[in-house]
Amino acid sequence: MDKVTLKGYIIVPELQLAKVRPALDIHIALTRAENGCIVFDVIQDSIDKHKFNVYEEFVDSASFLAHQARVRSSKWGEISKNLARQYKVTGLAE
């Protein structure tokens, strides 16, 4: 089984920053507690406050896909569903 890595960013419009930030903190804590999560970092960019750099590592495809399923049904999933994202995923089994 190969480790799955996701790297990229999300863009949060000015009007959504106050709503997104607390939900993101909860999302980070919940994800880091997930079975199979190795690393989960979402860090606000030091230059562009609307950009949040994302880096994730999961032990395998199953744990990554379980994370994705949890996110879709979570408060974070609802709050963030329309945010612009740019991600590259590597190691995902087909």
- Report the β-strand fraction as a percent range: 25-35%
**The first-level CATH class name:** Alpha Beta
> Ranges with pLDDT <50 over ≥5 residues?
none
Overall SS class: alpha+beta
What is the H/E string?
EHEEHHE
Q: Compute the CA-based radius of gyration.
A: 13 Å
Shape: globular
Helix content: 25-40%
Q: What is the rounded distance between the termini?
A: 12 Å
Largest sheet, strands/sense/barrel: 4 strands, antiparallel
Describe the secondary structure blueprint for this structure.
Elements: E1 4-11, H1 17-32, E2 37-44, E3 51-58, H2 61-72, H3 75-80, E4 84-90
Antiparallel strand pairs: 1-3, 1-4, 2-3
Q: Keywords for this structure?
A:
94 residues; alpha+beta; Alpha-Beta Plaits; 4-stranded antiparallel beta sheet; 3 helices; 4 strands; 36% helix; globular
Characterise this structure.
- There is one protein chain.
- By secondary structure, this protein is α+β, with helices and mostly antiparallel strands.
- It has a single domain (4-90), classed as 2-Layer Sandwich (Alpha-Beta Plaits), CATH 3.30.70.
- The chain is 36% helix and 33% strand.
- It has 3 helices and 4 strands.
- It has helices at residues 17-32, 61-72, 75-80, and strands at 4-11, 37-44, 51-58, 84-90.
- It has a 4-stranded antiparallel β-sheet with strand order 2-3-1-4.
- β2 (37-44) and β3 form a beta hairpin.
- The radius of gyration is 13 Å and the shape is globular.
- The model has no long low-confidence stretch (mean pLDDT 95).
